[in-house]
Each structure stands twice: as C-alpha cells, then as structure tokens.
Amino acid sequence: MIARSFTCRAVASLLLMSAGSAPLAAQPSTPLTIGQAVESALRNYPSIRVTQEQMNAAAAGIRLAQTAYLPRVDGLAQVNRATRNNVFGMLLPQSVIPSISGPVLGSNNFGTAWGSAAGALVTWQPFDFGLRGAQVASATAARDRAQAAVTRTRYEVSVATADAFLTVIAAQQTAQAARAAMDSWQVLLTSIHALVAAQLRPGADESRVQAEMAQAQTQLAQAEQAIEVARSTVAGFTGLNPAQIALTAGKMVDQLPPDTPQPALEAAAHPLSVEQNATIAEIESQLRSLQRTNYPEFFVQGSVSARGTGLLTDGSRLGGLNGLAPTYQNFALGLTVVFPFTDRFAIREQEAVQNANVRAQQAQAQLIATNLQTQFNAARVSLAGARRVALNTPVEVSSARTALQQATARYQSGLAPIDEVAQAQRLLVQAQIDDGLARLTVWRALLEMAAARGDLRPFLAEASQ
C-alpha cells in the first residue's frame, strides 16, 4: 500500500538526521490545500492517463468482438500470364505450389497465355453455440477491469499525494520548532555574553552556548532541506514546479479532527477489491468463451466468380489479348460445417489452466480483504493512540518551557551550570516538535483509515476546511 506508517518521533528523527542543507526556493505561488493538491494530481499525474487509455483500448475491444456478428465479404481480382502444363495426381494441402485447372495434355510445353479471374465470397455464421456472445462478454469484462484499474490508480495517487502533503507540513512544523530553538539560544547567548563581559561567568559558558546554537542552526538547515525534498515529491504528483508550490495545512496543525465513531470496514467496496473482482470476472468470461470453442462451426457461404483464359482444351493458344478479361462465370451457395475433432484435447488443458487462474485470483481477493482489514485495524489503534498523545503534548511543552525558565534563572543566579540550561533547552525543542507533529499524526492516522476504506473524499473535505 502507498500509505505509510507515521509516528512523531520517527519523522522528527528523520528530518533532523538529514545531511547537509539546501537553499530555500523562490517565493511560492498561491497556497494549496490538501484537497486541491489531490485534485491537481488526479489531473496531471501520468499513470492516470496511462490507465485511462488502457480502458479506452478495452472499450474498443468490445466493438471489435461485436464485429464477429457481421458477415465476411472477400473479393479477388487477378491477371497473370503462365504456362499450361497440368498433371494427374494429388497434393496435400499447402501454400507453395499454385493450383492448375484444365485437362492433362500429356506434354511439357513452356508456352504462356493470359489468364484472369475475379470473384467475391460472402461467409456468415448463422449460429455459434454462444461463442461470439461469450467473446463480447469477455471483452466487456476486460473493459470493466480496465475501468476498475483507473479507479484504483486514482485512489493510489490520491493517497500518495495526501501522504506527501502531510510530510511537507510535518517538515514545516519541525523547521518551526528549530527556528524557535534558534531564537531561544540567541536570547540566552546575549544574556551570557553580558555576564561573561562582566566577568561574572567563564568564557567557556559562552562557547558552550555558541556550540549549541550552531547545532540548532544545523538542525534548522536540515529541516529546511527536508521541506524542499518533500515539496519536490508533491510536485511530482501535481505536475507543478517545486519552487511554485506552497501548501496550507488549514486546521490540521491547530485542531484535531472530530472524534466521531468510525464505521466498520467494507472491504468489497475498496478500489483494490473492486479491481480484483473485475479481474476474476474477466478470467471467468474467458473460460466461458473457451468452453464454447469445442463445438462445430457452421458457415453459410455464397460465391460469384468469373475466369478468363487464352487457352483451349486441346492445349492450343488463342493469342492476342484473349484471357485478359473474365469470360466464364460461376456462382455457388452452400453450407460448410467445420468439426474441430482434435482441438478438444488442447481445449481441456486450457480450461484447466483458466480454472486454476480463477482459483488463484479468488485467493488473491481474500488476501486483499485480509490485508485491508489489518490495515484498518492498525489505523484505528494508531488513531486512538495519536489522540492520547496529542492531548498530552501541550502539557509536555508547558512543563519543558517552565523547566527552561527555571534552569535559566538558576544559571543567571549562579546556582546551576550551563549544562542544565542546555538540557532544558533540548527538552523544550523536542517537546515543541512532538507537539507540532502530534495533531498531524492524528490526521495521518485518519488518512490511513480512509485509505483502508478506499474513499478519501470525507477525509479531504474535513482536512481542507
């Protein structure tokens, strides 16, 4: 599945461990909500156009299968100049030696004469034991499966775009906490510099704060780099220039989603299940079509033809342009029946293959339903846990801020070393990161539940407000 698991500390660690820094992009354009980003991806992402054209091809396959109901009309016109030697005997069916009509002359003469032929043959199957209907049904099932693939692709692109959107917002929250840490260290550095200048504190304390501030600058650069990387991912889905992408989190940063009861999962309605069921239906229709190929084929045929020759029955030639125009006409009307006697052995094995394919796809459908239920259950547990964390992080931030204030006051009074202040500052930064990501974690868990259901519309409508 495209949706990825997400925890506050895992994302924070990933953002803060990224190596190097990148320059910030130019001023972005009008901010996009998460719903607008998904809509842009559904319009522009190439894989959706790929599956759409595959569906169009499958729809054309239905019309192709329906042409089998039409009579077949073949026309022929031929002019040649050839020898006239003919012999008794039989040739097995082949396509190399041309057939010759006329009496056997008993001589071997290489003189040539003109010959011509023209004709038309109409062939039509009055009934076929349901074969053509089964072929049309198979083509229709292929179209339905292609349509389900389009829906599934749109679902996957929507989930991936929403996930990338939340990753950008998470990176921005981490960068915001890093900037707050920078400001706090700057205030502390100013205060310590004054104390050191007044020889009330050793110079080592100022160096320690400068080192902590440099580390905070590195963390900020890494967080800004993570923002640009995540924005590039969103740009890949939406088809926009990364430098022109700005995202607005809406209420996701400040508010939790409503704590409403979550309905049970309906796995059969999920795009993955719908596509899998369409695949099963397609294979079953191919099996039914195959089962109808072991019947005799009946063809009503009508033919009109004419031939011309520059030869007489005694072998002499008429000369001139005789034979260039058809001068002898024939017509025929009849019924032809073709019995595929030995095909039944191959057809029986093909049916066994298709039956095995049906059973394999049915097992795959059960696996998909199981995985969806597992994903839904995990998302429900994650949602409940994320809500509890989000309710606790404000207390964590408040306590860490108070601890920093107290540590700073003790240090300025000479009652605590600089290490206590540094530890309190790091604790506050981590608490701010946890608090900034806590509400996003709840929204991401809600996204995972929507992804398990296969319908992101309620989530996008709530998150875009």
- The percent range for helix content is 55-70%
Shape: elongated
* Fraction of residues in β-strands: 5-15%
User: Strands of the largest sheet, in order across it?
Assistant: 1-2-3-4
Give me the CATH fold name of the domain at 23-65 and 133-286 and 347-463: Outer membrane efflux proteins (OEP)
Main sheet, how many strands, which sense, barrel?
A: 4 strands, antiparallel
Oligomer classification:
single chain
Q: Strand-and-helix sequence, N→C? A: HHHEEHHHEEHHH
CATH superfamily of the domain at 23-65 and 133-286 and 347-463: Outer membrane efflux proteins (OEP)
Query: Uncertain segments of ≥5 residues (pLDDT<50)?
Result: 1-28
Can you put this structure into words, describing what you see?
With 465 residues, the protein is α+β, with helices and mostly antiparallel strands. It has a domain at 23-65 and 133-286 and 347-463: Outer membrane efflux proteins (OEP). The protein has helices at 8-17, 34-44, 46-66, 131-197, 203-238, 271-291, 343-412, 418-453, 457-463, and strands spanning 72-82, 113-124, 297-309, 328-338. It has a 4-stranded antiparallel β-sheet with strand order 1-2-3-4, with no helix packed on it. The radius of gyration is 40 Å and the shape is elongated.
Summarize the entry for a quick read:
The chain is α+β, with helices and mostly antiparallel strands and 465 residues long. The protein is built from 9 helices and 4 strands; from the N terminus they run αααββαααββααα.
Name a few traits of the molecule.
disordered N terminus, 465 residues
